Amino acid sequence: MDRLEHIYVIIAQKGVADVTLREINSYIKDIQNGTEDFPRFNLSEHAGLCTAGAPLIGASIIACYATASLTAGGNAESSKRSPTHWEIDERQEQLIEQWAKAANLWVEGSEKILKENFGPMIAQGAEAKVYYHEGDTSVVKERVSIYSTTQKALDAIVLHNCLFPETAMKVVGFTRDSDGLMRIVLTQPYVNCLRLATKEEIDNMVASKGFRDNCNGEGVNYVLRPYSTRRHAPC
């Protein structure tokens, strides 16, 4: 039985108990110091994982367990029905909230706390609310999932850190907003924008990372180029 499977067994038997937290924290430390790997990510992505911080690693462990337990339960049924994305996401959110509260990583009334400690909300988009105090070197974000599962939202942070280490995100906690949506609380370096980038500059930058415009020419979405035509850039 490998390390991750051992943790899964403990969660199944004990729930989010003290022994569970100790095992998860020990595994997180070993991942961060390089003595253990998280099998979800390849070697180049591990730097992005570790930069994202212990709260993200712990949440990823819990989310992976939620998926594995649902899948195992579905396979045990005679029909062997695979769980839907909605079921997986609901279970991941439920268990991450339980774990985050037990690990003191849950923020109640986050909007008020963030305004008091990190400044007013300066922007809000489809993916995040952004808080910033003039003169600080970082912003704080409440990032909501726009993905099919919470695990994919966590993965997106890891991949961002891998591809764009100069604006790496560091997860500090979890919360729910006034609409009941789970949000990931994170910090990110503040970038003073002197001007907007041109479409050509964006295309050249993402091309260096192995991506291309999705062919509509609008620069809204970028997709991974075929492997044979990719130029490799270290993360």
What this model shows, in words?
The chain is α+β, with helices and mostly antiparallel strands and 235 residues long. Helices cover 47% and strands 15% of the residues. The two termini are 31 Å apart. The C terminus is likely disordered. It has a five-stranded antiparallel β-sheet. The chain has three domains: 100 residues, no CATH class; 80 residues, Phosphorylase Kinase, domain 1 (2-Layer Sandwich), CATH 3.30.200; 31 residues, no CATH class. Helix 4 packs across helix 7. The chain has eight helices and seven strands. The longest helix has 23 residues.
Briefly, what is this?
With 235 residues, this protein is of the alpha+beta class. Helices cover 47% and strands 15% of the residues.
Set out the fold topology.
Elements: H1 3-14, H2 18-32, H3 43-52, H4 54-76, H5 85-102, H6 110-118, E1 121-124, E2 128-131, E3 138-144, H7 150-163, E4 170-176, E5 182-189, H8 199-208, E6 211-213, E7 222-224
Antiparallel strand pairs: 1-2, 2-3, 3-5, 4-5, 6-7
Helix pairs in contact: 1-2, 2-4, 3-7, 4-5, 4-7
